[in-house]
Sequence to fold (354 residues):
Amino acid sequence: MAKKAPKKKPAKEDKPKEAEAPEAKALTPKQLVASLNRRFDDKAATLMDESEAGTQDVFSTGLAVLDRHVIGIGGLPWGRIIEVSGREGGGKSTLAAKFMAGAQKDGGVAVLLDAERTFEPSWARLHGVDIESLVWVRPDHMFQDGEGGALERVEAIAQRQRKAFIVLDSVSALKTHAEVDGGISADQGVAEIARHWSRGLRILTEILAKSQSTLMLINQVRSTIGGYGPSTDTSGGNAIKFYTSLRLKVWPYRPKDATEPYARIGVEAIKNKLARPWRKADLRLNFDEGFDERWNVLNHAKEVKAVPPRCQSFKEAAAKLGWFDIATETTDDEGPTDAPEEAQEAGDDEAPSE
Fold:
């Protein structure tokens, strides 16, 4: 009887050897950069003194006290996300118009996403906005895949335009998915808006930085529920607070005489990743002429006691503050004809919680 051939054992498959991690060495910063660039690509890493990231490009708002004291870096930054929040009638949209004018003077393109449908061209023109060059966008909703929501339009603008100053007016006016589909009676989840903002800002942060475009979010103040913490907060969830590099809070002052042709607003940097935060200043707004820059500078100089209370010289105030460039811009040294008025602040001045 023939013997059965022995069964052959299956050949052992050679398991691929796991790549061994390189041994850590003591490298110089330049050697580490070179190693990373060889491993990934030529732009994986760079030294800060060889990169544009080491300097922040800014543009002036046209308000010296805001640029040099409150913001602290000479103006608003390009390539960042900023927020201006406050009570109704506090001057948020007026500051937005002033900022758009400053961006246009610096060679940027101003874009307004008017979700509130309240834009007034004549008021913007008073504050220096070139209306003929202003891009006006009217989004219908906040975020809806493939249908041109506000955040998608911001993304498209930043991808196509370098140095675009994009103003979204306002965060609270944007409709959500549920509101678009169900109308006024729609029942939406409490966290839906916050999720949209968290998702959108994660994507927009890098796109804005690459195109050196700035997104300004105008936000409103809401009363908080419960007895703990601050009595007011901003809408949109916490993502906006985390992703913004600069948060400005504004509030109005109630004038003693309602017939006065000007108003006074306060501005405070409640978050500032570019300079020292928590600095504030008052600005005077003339309804017929715009912001009173002489009053602003002179009042600030008196607040910090750089000049005596009775000083009426704009040049002297600017020079004492060390702002010699604006002190020599004009030959007219006539300061405000009246001393800074005493006004009562309207509403609660408690800063939103971080």
